[in-house]
């Protein structure tokens, strides 16, 4: 959980978003300047009704403020080892049950698809804070709406024109969960929220004759005494024994000021609606980097991705660990920066594929988009090869956190029965790229959605990774030829329509 510097008396040694040594000021650095980790002993801000409008007008959006606008696919081909130029910037891999299969009766059959895609992703700041009231705790969320449209890009035999097919729509909201206040009871709030209930006479049997009692009564006489005596807790002397507690029926002004104080587990949430029949809630935060015994969340340089055999890392592969792992062993690791192994193009049998570890994943390595069909985020790596990135912020989110608060996934009955979606993990890099002396914001992401359906002769369940990666820039920052494609595919403005509402530059 992060807080703004201006909300603390001083940043002090806990400041996390300080610029790294030698780092120049940049737009992203300006957005992220002044943040520090919120700790349990940090000052807590009181909430007062007269400050409500000011709080809403100054709600924090954190790094989400950098997302505002329309982002579209940005396509480059910096990896000269890939002889076939990419058609689009995005890559997805999808594994589904093979036609005719029925879970539990015909195991081991699946369809694999890997395609390139283009995308339009629009973020819109929601003005004013979204207020969540929790009694003594108040949370003001900085909300950012998003709308996503994706079309696959493929060639058609015998045609020069590419085929663009809509494959995904999604909308939802990101929240920056940072503005937390303590809201103590006041005389006015107690009187307002008490309602019209008449004064209780229930306490008369304890000898209390006041009106609404706002502190506990305690019995100070032992059980064996026939005439018990009760006093208010405030009248109890230090060390004086008591034998029974009668809870208060009302709170007193100032109640709640002594805590406990709420510190959110995470700074960011994402809620999304997917028309396949799933709704998601992801939670997460900004990933730090440690350097020179200091912690930085605004990181100098470019995001790092592996090369060679180090790229065979199962958490990012479209080949699940429960799919046989393509026969890979610690001694025999596939180098994804070299051509696929010879067996990928062979006919496999019980002799050259004992245990059938390769046959299930052969088509993934033989795909035309190799190596991206195996590890899609290498496309992100290769996009960065020819770029000068001065700094970036790395956001990591998941529906299934290892500790703390949890997000989740809900599915309609059909999806839940045949291909239940059980987890969504997302990494997002917001980067400052220097081109021709100009600073350009760039957005890269990797999203892994895990499906589950039956696989294997033992009746076991396999976790199938459905991966999407893409590189995006604001629409005004992409080349003219790519912009023309985006405008043709995602914006349709008739002569009689409101040009501003459909204009790709309207969101900045």
Automatic annotation (TrEMBL):
Residues 1-20 are annotated as: Disordered. InterPro entries: Heme_bind_FMP. It comes from the Bacteria. This is Uncharacterized protein. It comes from Chryseobacterium culicis.
């Amino acid at each position: 959980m992060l807080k703004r510097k201006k909300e603390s008396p001083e940043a002090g040694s806990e400041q996390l978003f300080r610029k790294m040594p030698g780092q120049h000021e940049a737009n992203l650095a300006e957005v992220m300047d002044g943040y520090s980790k919120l700790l349990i002993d940090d000052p807590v801000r009181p909430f007062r009704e007269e400050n409500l409008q000011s709080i809403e007008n100054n709600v924090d959006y954190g790094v989400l403020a950098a997302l505002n606008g329309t982002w579209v696919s940005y396509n480059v081909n910096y990896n000269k080892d890939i002889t076939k130029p990419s058609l689009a910037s995005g890559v997805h891999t999808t594994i589904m049950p093979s036609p005719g299969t029925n879970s539990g009766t015909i195991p081991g059959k699946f369809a694999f698809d890997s395609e390139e895609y283009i995308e339009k992703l629009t973020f819109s700041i929601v003005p004013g804070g979204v207020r969540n009231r929790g009694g003594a705790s108040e949370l003001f969320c900085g909300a950012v709406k998003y709308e996503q449209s994706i079309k696959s890009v493929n060639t058609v035999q015998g045609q020069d024109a590419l085929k663009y097919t809509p494959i995904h729509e999604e909308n939802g909201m990101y929240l920056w969960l940072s503005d937390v206040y303590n809201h103590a009871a006041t005389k006015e709030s107690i009187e307002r929220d008490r309602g019209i209930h008449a004064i209780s006479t229930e306490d008369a049997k304890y000898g209390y004759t006041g009106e609404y009692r706002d502190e506990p009564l305690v019995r100070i006489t032992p059980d064996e005494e026939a005439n018990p005596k009760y006093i208010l807790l405030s009248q109890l002397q230090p060390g004086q024994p008591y034998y029974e507690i009668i809870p208060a029926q009302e709170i007193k002004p100032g109640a709640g000021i002594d805590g406990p104080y709420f510190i959110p587990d995470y700074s960011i949430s994402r809620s999304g609606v997917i028309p396949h029949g799933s709704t998601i809630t992801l939670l997460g935060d900004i990933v730090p980097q440690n350097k020179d015994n200091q912690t930085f969340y605004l990181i100098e340089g470019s995001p790092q991705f592996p090369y060679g055999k180090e790229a065979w890392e199962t958490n990012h592969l479209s080949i699940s660990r429960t799919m046989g792992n393509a026969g890979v062993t610690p001694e025999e690791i596939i180098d994804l920066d070299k051509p696929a192994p010879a067996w990928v193009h062979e006919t496999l049998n019980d002799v050259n594929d004992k245990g059938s570890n390769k046959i299930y994943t052969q088509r993934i390595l033989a795909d035309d988009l190799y190596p991206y069909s195996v590890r899609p985020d290498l496309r992100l790596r290769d996009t960065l090869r020819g770029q000068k990135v001065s700094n970036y912020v790395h956001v990591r989110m998941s529906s299934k956190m290892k500790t703390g608060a949890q997000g989740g996934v809900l599915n309609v009955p059909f999806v839940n029965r045949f291909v239940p979606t059980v987890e969504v993990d997302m990494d997002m890099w917001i980067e400052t790229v220097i081109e021709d002396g100009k600073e350009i914001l760039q957005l890269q992401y990797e999203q892994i959605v895990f499906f589950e359906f039956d696989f294997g002769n033992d009746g076991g369940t396999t976790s199938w990774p459905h991966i999407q990666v893409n590189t995006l820039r604001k629409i005004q920052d992409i080349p003219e030829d790519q912009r023309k494609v985006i405008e043709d595919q995602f914006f349709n403005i008739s002569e009689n329509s409101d040009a501003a509402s459909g204009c790709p530059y309207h969101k900045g």
